[in-house]
């Protein structure tokens, strides 16, 4: 669910002028991001996230997962070089207001938000981060695991020995009602050769990323994350905010994508007008080896 595709493809497309990246980020923050709250809670409960936790969130987006960890007392650092618009919203959530005019002190915060590469997130504590998270679903776009491997390669040297690394992804397509809707993105994007389009999750996506990063698996789980919207308009805006339909917009146009997305959502509409799609998400907990970070194996074609 990365906004990078918007910049790479829509910047050269005729529909680029109609894409408001600030509004797209706001839709993600206000409509879509909350759908993954059960996932964040399950991971934080399982790992007992609290005051002793030093968390590094990769692809942190607008920061809801970081905010939830900070509310448990964790010191949090978020990195997201791909979306300055989402990161600006994370700053609104996590960083204190400026001091009042005429004096006063700035409120203390344990949050840091960075737009650069993971290497910029050097931990203040020499012991390093105790938890690294990637809650943006792995493998949603074709070729995404390879890019995540590069991101982890830059982040894992900052983690302490034995630190937990959490990867998340979609569950089996048959357990995710939203899969039928997301297939619209793939169908419409077919005319764009080589487009990074949505694909269904594979069983070992998370394990493959962990293995190539030199991480040791240490447990996994599944969490129900239903997607619920107040109406069809909210559902369309929320799903478009994920970035998974960007290649489809490039291949056709925004109006065509809106039309076909709305049609695909109709079977999930309830009598009261709300939209409800049950989904299951997976997470994998892996560990940095006790003897330190092991460089990842190259991805095929790298």
UniProtKB/TrEMBL annotation:
Top-level taxon in the UniProt lineage: Bacteria
Gene3D superfamilies, A to Z: Vaccinia Virus protein VP39
SUPFAM superfamilies referenced in this protein's UniProt entry, alphabetically: S-adenosyl-L-methionine-dependent methyltransferases
InterPro entries on file: SAM-dependent_MTases_sf
Protein name stated in the entry: SAM-dependent methyltransferase
């Amino acid at each position: 669910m990365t906004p990078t595709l918007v910049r790479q493809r829509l910047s050269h497309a005729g529909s680029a002028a109609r894409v408001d990246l600030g509004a797209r980020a706001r839709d993600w923050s206000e409509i879509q991001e909350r759908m993954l709250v059960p996932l964040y809670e399950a991971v934080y409960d399982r790992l007992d996230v609290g005051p002793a936790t030093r968390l590094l969130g990769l692809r942190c987006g607008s920061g809801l997962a970081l905010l939830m960890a900070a509310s448990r007392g964790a010191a949090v650092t978020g990195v997201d070089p791909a979306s300055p618009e989402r990161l600006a919203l994370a700053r609104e959530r996590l960083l204190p207001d400026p001091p009042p005019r005429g004096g006063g002190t700035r409120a203390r915060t344990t949050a840091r938000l960075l737009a650069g590469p993971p290497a910029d997130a050097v931990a203040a504590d020499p012991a390093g981060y105790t938890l690294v998270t990637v809650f943006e679903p792995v493998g949603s776009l074709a070729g995404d695991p390879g890019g995540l491997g590069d991101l982890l390669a830059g982040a894992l040297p900052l983690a302490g020995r034995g630190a937990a690394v959490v990867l998340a992804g979609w569950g089996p397509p048959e357990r995710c009602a939203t899969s039928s809707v997301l297939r619209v993105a793939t169908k419409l994007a077919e005319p764009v050769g080589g487009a990074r389009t949505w694909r269904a999750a594979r069983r070992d996506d998370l394990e493959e990323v962990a293995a190539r990063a030199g991480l040791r698996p240490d447990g996994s789980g599944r969490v129900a994350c239903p997607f619920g919207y107040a109406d069809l308009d909210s559902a369309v805006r929320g799903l478009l905010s994920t970035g998974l339909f960007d290649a489809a917009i490039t291949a056709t146009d925004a109006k065509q994508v809106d039309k076909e997305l709305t049609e695909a959502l109709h079977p999930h509409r309830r009598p009261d007008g709300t939209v409800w799609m049950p989904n299951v998400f997976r997470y994998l907990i892996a560990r940095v080896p006790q003897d330190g970070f092991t460089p990842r194996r190259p991805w095929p074609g790298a």
